[in-house]
Predict the structure.
Amino acid sequence: MSLAPRAVLVHRRTEYEELLARHGTHGQAAFLLSRRGRSIEEVVHRHERTRQALREVAAAVPLTWRSSSVERADLDRFPFAPEDVVVVVGQDGLVANTAKYLRGQPVVGIDTDPGRNPGVLVRHRCADTAALLRAAIAAGGPAEELTMVEAVADDTQRLLALNEIYLGSPGHQTARYRLGGEGDQGPEEAQASSGVLVGTGTGATGWLRSLWLERGSSAALPSPCERRLLWFVREAWPSPATGTTRVAGELGQGQGLRLTVESDRIVVFGDGIEGDALELTWGQSVRLGIAGTSLRLVT
């Protein structure tokens, strides 16, 4: 007998909960905020709105379904199952934080603070939850397949990201490596830089776009569902031993960018989650390209 669908509600701690964790009591947090010219009432109001949204979404889960919830900090330990429907309740960034741990499960994005969030990935309101859950499990239900980027190291470590993957030194030191595309003729180029960023169409509204604008790139930014990536080297340094001829490009289906480490340590992390990074040491290599997995976002 097949299992009933499970709705997994993904959320993150509110600013108010973080203040209480840091300062202990409501009064102490209010006092410290007042000294900085801020009122805690604004923070409490957003907290209450988020909690109410979570209650409304939970109440919309059909009685015949199973349900569970997970906080953002615990995503890397949560056992997602194939029959799950993932309901992200919060900000756009929380969808990106969740995407790397999924393998094709449908995702519903619920905006807890309309007007404050851009709503690029959390496109729906709490009242839409029940209809969206039905659509998520219906054959041919409305959904977008958002392209993701992956990094695969030579020791089989693998990292997925929805917006972008960054490779660089852990800190502010210069990263040293060799960079080349698969199938390129000639040797890889030795480089010293602030790191390499490989981004998707979903990430084209964020960090990738800022680098694209800074370079005045003539390459068109990819759309979220397009099977194409752009990559940029940040602040490549020319020297007798390092070059700057390969500092930007794009990757299509089946194409890869290969980086071989020539530093003591390079970290690889996705969507700004530094706490869940791959660590590579001297001589290791990593391939960047379009992931076989997409994010299925229910529309």
